[in-house]
Each structure stands twice: as structure tokens, then as C-alpha cells.
Design goal:
The complex is a heterodimer of chains A (197) and B (203). Helix content of chain A is 45%, strand content 22%. With 197 residues, chain A is an alpha+beta fold. Chain A has one domain. In chain A, strands 1-2-3-4-5 form a 5-stranded antiparallel β-sheet. In chain A, strand 2 and strand 3 form a beta hairpin. Chain B has a two-stranded antiparallel sheet with strand order 1-2. In chain B, a hairpin with a 2-residue loop joins strand 1 and strand 2. The longest helix of chain B has 31 residues. The chains are: A alpha+beta (197), B mainly alpha (203). At the A-B interface, helix 1 of A face helix 5 and helix 6 of B.
Chain lengths: 197, 203
């Protein structure tokens, strides 16, 4: 009996201490990780989508609160008008969350491009979503109100062969991004005015 | 005869060199050694985890109950692996991207659990630290060596770390990179050949 209590106590204490330490490390590194992701992952994706922008989208960004989280928007300026925003949506992939950066022109509500940012998919299969532009290029020109899905589910996006789950997650991420765009459009227009000046 | 701390440390460098002498922990050995830099990065991460888990397991060995020791080891190891993962994301993001899923997989690396169970749980803290560091550094060097051979043959050049690199093609312009070596089957063949060499050199 005594042995039993000792086992429970040791395991409980050990788990709680480990949890506490990890929470502290997580908190301590969070801002640094965000900065690194911005440089190495989101940066190239944003630059690819907003290629040709006359201002640097990474510098000209703003945040809008969405419930408990905050969504970052990166602004691109074309032909003298700040009219395009890039922002990220997430979908559940085969190995974890997949982040997809989408660019939307706020004048006609059409997607100007999409790019995968973070993922933990299988190299050679799902990871092609990031390396192979074939999948994400299909989103270009869609309207934010269009339904999006892979052909297997009756949608218009041709999935990567052997990686249907990943392709579906990318579609989910785009849908999520488009939904939050529609929800936050008034705030986006308000914020983008400030950048445009 | 009881070994000294120095002997506990140096045994990991040759006698019990993890992938080649013990042939343990082969999943990362085969998976990440497509380049020398990846191999070294993975080795350093594993060394940190080995050091931390050996230290803590050894320190807590009198209060960890025998029956739940494996569960306790796993909690300790998993905590250190998560710390490594976060630190790598914060300070070495490109490396984190390349190693990907292999970092969380250190938790189930049998070298780490093996050292906790077979050594740290039974030995003093100082000896356990020496053992962890020795095995870890041996593992790092093995991964680095395997990565260097595969990268050199498969790619024609080796990036040691950062900007330090050697390009075989400048010395032998007619060399054709044998890309089979950086693919998965090449890992098995290269490991086999290196095992062969190391066994031939022997004790």
C-alpha cells in the first residue's frame, strides 16, 4: 500500500514539475520563435505571394484580435495602392498543423496566391505541398466566397497523389483563412488605410 | 574492477560507440545523416538530452520507485527533448526545419532510455554525467562521420558547419555525384560499409 502511494506521489510530482519547466521554457522562447518563423518560414512565403509590392510587407504588418488569438496581416502595395493582405490559416494535416499563407486583394476579394509555411508532413509525400507549387497555385484567382475542396470531395483542387490528407488540410487552411478574412474585413479595411498613407 | 570517471567517459568514444559498436539508435542514424551538418546537429541535441536525463535520473534514483521507473525516465527524457525542440526553434530554426520529426523522436531513441536504465539508475551522479557525455559525443561524431561520407559521395561536397565546406569537384572536376548515397538505401549501405571498416580495425 505504502509502495503504491509512493509511486503515485513520485509520478505526480515529476509530471507537474516537468510541466511547469516546459511551460516556463515555452513562454521564454515564444517571442524568439515567432521572430525566427517570420524570417525563415513566413518571410519567404509572404515575399512569394506579394512579389512586386513596393513596400516591405513584413515591416508593414498589423494585428487584429480574433477571440482570444491575434491574427497578423501583412500588407502589400501595388500600383501605389495598399490593396493586398497576406495572412495565415491552419488545417489539420497528417503529421500536425499545416499553415498556409494566403494573399487576398481587398478590392475584388480574390486570392492572389497561397504558400505553405509550417508543416510536419512526410518527406517525399505530404511535404511536396510546400516544395511543389502545383497544389497551391490552384488557389490563385479564387474568390473568398468560393467553396474550396479536393476533387475527391467534389471540390476543384487536384490533390497531390499519395497525399490526399495533406491536400485536404491545405484546403481547410485556405477555407479557414478566407472565413476569418470575411469576418474581419471591416477591421482589415480600417487598418490598411493607415498603412496606405 | 570499478572504472574511473575518465574511463566511463571515453568508453562512449570507442568501446561502446553507439551506432557502430552497440548498433543502437539506428533510426536517426539512417534518417538524418544526409549531410554532415544534420548529423552533427542531431548528435548535439541527443547529447544534451542524454546529459540531462542521465543527470536527473541518477540524482533521483533513490526516490524513483522500481516499479514505475520506466515511466519516470520517459517523463524526464520527454521534458528534455521538448526543451531541445523549443531551443532549436528559437536559435537554430533552419536546422530545426531540416531535422523535423527526428527531434521529437529522440524520446524513443533507445540509447537515451538505455543509458538511463542500464547506467544512470545504478550509478553516482558524476559517473552518470561522464557516461552521458561520452556516449553523446560518440554518437555525435558517428553521425557526423556517416553524414560526411554520404554527403561527400552523394553530393560531391561537404558542409562541415556554417560556411566551412570542402568541394570534391574542385579537386576532381570529372567526379560524378552518386546521389544514391544520400537516399535511404544508401544510408544502409554506407552504415554497413562503415561497420565493416570499424570491425576490421577492431579492438
Amino acid at each position: 500500500m505504502n509502495d503504491m502511494i509512493k509511486m503515485v506521489v513520485v509520478l505526480t510530482v515529476l509530471s507537474s514539475v516537468a510541466g511547469g519547466v516546459l511551460a516556463a521554457v515555452n513562454k521564454g522562447t515564444a517571442s524568439q520563435i515567432e521572430a525566427q518563423q517570420l524570417t525563415f518560414v513566413k518571410g519567404p512565403a509572404i515575399k512569394a505571394i506579394l512579389a512586386g509590392s513596393s513596400i516591405d510587407p513584413i515591416v508593414n504588418r498589423f494585428k487584429i484580435a480574433d477571440g482570444e488569438t491575434e491574427q497578423s496581416f501583412f500588407v502589400g502595395k501595388f500600383d501605389g495602392k495598399a490593396n493586398t493582405v497576406a495572412f495565415e490559416g491552419f488545417g489539420k494535416g497528417f503529421g500536425g498543423d499545416i499553415g498556409v499563407m494566403v494573399g487576398v486583394n481587398i478590392e475584388d476579394d480574390k486570392l492572389v496566391g497561397a504558400a505553405v509555411t509550417v508543416h510536419t508532413e512526410t518527406p517525399g509525400l505530404g511535404a511536396k505541398a510546400k516544395d511543389d507549387p502545383g497544389l497551391v497555385s490552384q488557389f490563385k484567382g479564387l474568390s473568398v466566397t468560393d467553396p474550396v475542396g479536393v476533387t475527391k470531395d467534389g471540390g476543384q483542387i487536384t490533390a497531390i497523389s499519395g497525399a490526399t490528407i495533406t491536400s485536404r488540410a491545405v484546403c481547410d487552411a485556405v477555407v479557414q483563412a478566407m472565413n476569418s478574412y470575411q469576418k474581419m474585413k471591416p477591421q482589415i479595411q480600417e487598418e490598411i488605410q493607415k498603412v496606405g498613407k | 574492477m570499478p572504472k574511473t570517471i575518465v574511463q566511463e567517459f571515453t568508453k562512449g568514444l570507442w568501446e561502446e560507440l553507439p551506432p557502430f559498436r552497440l548498433v543502437l539508435g539506428l533510426c536517426p542514424v539512417l534518417g538524418v545523416t544526409t549531410s554532415m551538418e544534420n548529423g552533427l546537429g542531431m548528435g548535439i541535441a541527443t547529447t544534451f538530452v542524454l546529459f540531462g536525463s542521465n543527470f536527473l535520473v541518477s540524482m533521483l534514483r533513490s526516490i524513483i520507485p522500481q516499479k514505475v521507473r520506466i515511466a519516470c525516465f520517459i517523463i524526464i527524457i520527454a521534458a528534455f527533448v521538448t526543451i531541445v525542440e523549443l531551443l532549436m526553434q528559437a536559435y537554430a530554426y533552419p536546422l530545426y526545419l531540416k531535422l523535423g520529426v527526428f527531434i521529437p523522436l529522440i524520446v524513443v531513441n533507445c540509447i537515451v532510455l538505455g543509458r538511463a536504465e542500464a547506467f544512470a539508475y545504478k550509478n553516482k551522479v558524476s559517473y552518470s554525467i561522464a557516461d552521458g557525455l561520452g556516449i553523446g559525443i560518440g554518437f555525435t561524431l558517428s553521425l557526423g562521420a556517416l553524414g560526411a561520407v554520404r554527403e561527400l559521395i552523394g553530393n560531391g561536397s561537404v558542409t562541415v558547419w556554417g560556411d566551412v565546406s570542402y568541394n570534391l569537384l574542385t579537386a576532381f572536376p570529372s567526379y560524378q555525384p552518386f546521389s544514391f548515397m544520400v537516399q535511404a538505401p544508401g544510408a544502409f549501405i554506407c552504415l554497413g560499409l562503415m561497420l565493416c571498416v570499424i570491425n576490421a580495425v577492431g579492438d
